Amino acid sequence: MSYAETFKALSDPVRRQILELLKNGRLSAGDIAGRFDMTQATVSYHLKILKQADLIRETREKNYIFYELNLTVLEEIMMWLSELKGET
Question: What pTM did the predictor assign?
């Protein structure tokens, strides 16, 4: 993970909304897509960017793909920001 990839992924409002949805637990790709007025391909693109930034994880179960937050990366970013602010 690089901070550049992470902040690029976080810069898009749709991707931030996807992360907000996932804070309550894992969701299938179809459940995520159903919350947006855009094509499945567009939602898949956003999920791909979030995966590349390591902000979400995907697991496959039968014919479904489920996504969940990768809290490790978020905690690492929060620690970095705290250090930048001079907090310990």
Answer: 0.88
Question: Which residue(s) pair with 57 in the sheet?
Answer: 68
Residue 33 CA, distance from chain mean position:
14
pLDDT category, 52, cuts 50, 70, 90?
A: very high
Q: Tokens 């907000």 identify what position?
A: 20
Contact residues for 59 (Cβ-Cβ < 8 A; gap 6+): 26, 65, 66, 68
Dihedral sign (CA 21, 48, 15, 30)? negative
**DSSP helix/strand/coil, 29:** helix
